Amino acid sequence: MKARIHITLKPGVLDPQGKAVHHALAGLGFDGIEDVRQGKYIEVDLAEPDKDKAHAKLDEMCRKLLANTVIENYTITFD
The whole model's pTM is what? Predict the structure, then answer.
């Protein structure tokens, strides 16, 4: 089972990488961009046929390693 994990900074957390991308895009002439936030995208292929068990495993992976839950949110989706 393939899962997709999107990790983003929580609202209000400063995003220096997003600001750098925003500045670079403006420097390239892209106008009208109000804000840029950068995150992480991770694909995990699990040998777990039960979707609930797979979600529980992925949730634990996110909480223990993949996401810093103090400053990041994450969502888990399946194909």
Answer: 0.88
